[in-house]
Amino acid sequence: MADTSEIYKYFEPTVQHNTLALSNIHTLTSWGVGTAAGILGLTGWNGFIFFMANWVVISLLVLAVKCEGRPSVYFKASIMDVAGTPLLNTLLSYVLVWTLMHALVYIYD
């Protein structure tokens, strides 16, 4: 039988709120980074390297500032919830905005 301290360790509405806030942070920053990559004219692997560098910076900032260095207090899976889980959805948003902005800026080149 599970320990009662483990069962009541996380209050589910609070964890869901934290996950939603983290998702909003990652989505909005991916739009900003995608816009910057499109305007800078990054193509191919340079754009993906730009995304990964910014992903690492944003994840470290979230861990340091929002989670105060203790992600296990705010999320069940700790660092995976902050850095790993939302990666694919954020990458798709980034690519969408990146290609849109690149097409808008460099349409007549």
From TrEMBL:
Alphabetized InterPro entries for the sequence: Emc6, EMC6-like
Keyword annotations of the record: Endoplasmic reticulum, Membrane, Transmembrane, Transmembrane helix
Gene Ontology, cellular component aspect: EMC complex
Pfam name, any one: EMC6
Keyword Transport attached: no
Compartments where located: Endoplasmic reticulum membrane
Keyword Transmembrane helix on entry: yes
Family: Belongs to the EMC6 family.
Protein's recorded name: ER membrane protein complex subunit 6
Source organism per UniProt: Coemansia biformis
Lineage, uppermost ranks: Eukaryota, Fungi, Fungi incertae sedis, Zoopagomycota, Kickxellomycotina
